[in-house]
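During the reporting period the student researcher (J.K.) took over the structure-prediction task from the postdoctoral fellow and processed the backlog of single-chain submissions. One of the processed entries is reproduced below for the supervisory committee.
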Amino acid sequence: QVQLVESGGGLVQAGESLRLSCALSGSIFSVNAMGWYRQAPGKQRELVAGIFSGGTTNYADSVKGRFTISRDNAKNTVYLQMNSLKPEDTAVYYCNAEVIPTGWGFRTNVYWGQGTQVTVSS
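J.K. obtained the following structure tokens:
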């Protein structure tokens, strides 16, 4: 019943910007954390940015100063503002969330979106 839907990916030129959105829906008691991962062809999936319930954020070194993660708790939505994009940012970007589903007590579960393609041309 819990699901994540990503949007905002696309094709841009180097130096341009994109804003990704991820909407979490379903029967949810609380959200512990949300974040963004990416996976390029032939490479392992890596953490891009994360945000915890208290507002603490973390970023991969490769995107610090260029990407910003933010959240709207009322809408259970997380955003990733990506500026000064580089060709090496090209990847499928996945949203994830660690939540406590309604009725689960304090048991958490991790959910993933289907991914959105970001392609940056040189």
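The committee noted the following: The mean pLDDT is 96.
J.K. will present the remaining backlog at the next meeting.
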